[in-house]
Amino acid sequence: MIGCRSDKEHINHSRELLCVSVQQCINPLLQKLVRRPFKHCPTTGESPCLNMDIAAVNALPYEDFVDILGNVVEKCPIVTAAVWSGRPFLSLAALEAAISEFIDALPESGKEGILRCHPDLAGRDLQSGSLTRESHEEQAGSGMGALNSGEVSLMARLNQEYKERFGFPFVICARMHDKENILRQLFARCQNERAVERARGIEEVKKICHLRLQSLVLTDNRL
């Protein structure tokens, strides 16, 4: 007799799926999930759903939870799907901690898979308009869309050197930096060891996640 998975089994299964899916960066099913438009918010009718409190987040059914929060980790809605079973979250910080704990528990291959889901900064996706909404806003806000021709060439060369050295793209929380600082950090981080950059990249993923969550869910001091 086959029963429903327990919450622990659900999380472990999601973690196993993630290790396979993100290394392929990203399979058609997940790509379809990321690219489909946000549903209207169940509580406000807005699209996308903004400024929900944690109680409203906890009340979301699985599909809406993933639709609304599915890109807080770039192109990895399965991370959000995995933590849904951990509701109710006491606060936004608790939700963020659950996401971080899930990522931290991944093997190194899974963490690198998450990094590979991120686009190059000022790369072809920005030029073609194929970035996710969040990535486009973040890159545009940091000045990546306003580089001169020399900066574009330098960024492309450094991005390629970085990927050849580490096997995953350079990830930085663009909203916390301007274009000059991003270029400096890209150049400096190309000199690091792979394990150092993998850990640094995951920390940047968490910073990006933190800011994306704050744009969707009210923090305790904003309730």
What does this structure look like?
By secondary structure, the chain is an all-alpha fold. Helix content is 61%, strand content 0%. The protein has helices spanning 7-24, 28-35, 54-59, 62-69, 77-83, 92-104, 108-116, 124-128, 133-141, 149-166, 179-189, 194-216. The termini are far apart. Residues 19-40 and 42-47 have low confidence and may be disordered.
Q: TL;DR?
A:
Helix content is 61%, strand content 0%.
Distance between the termini: 46 Å
Task: Give the overall silhouette.
Answer: globular
Order of helices and strands, N to C?
HHHHHHHHHHHH
Mean pLDDT: 84
**Proportion of strand residues:** under 5%
Helical residue percent? 55-70%
Walk me through the topology.
Blueprint: H1 7-24, H2 28-35, H3 54-59, H4 62-69, H5 77-83, H6 92-104, H7 108-116, H8 124-128, H9 133-141, H10 149-166, H11 179-189, H12 194-216
Helix pairs in contact: 1-5, 1-7, 4-5, 5-6, 6-12, 7-12, 10-11
Spell out the key features of this protein:
single chain; mainly alpha; globular
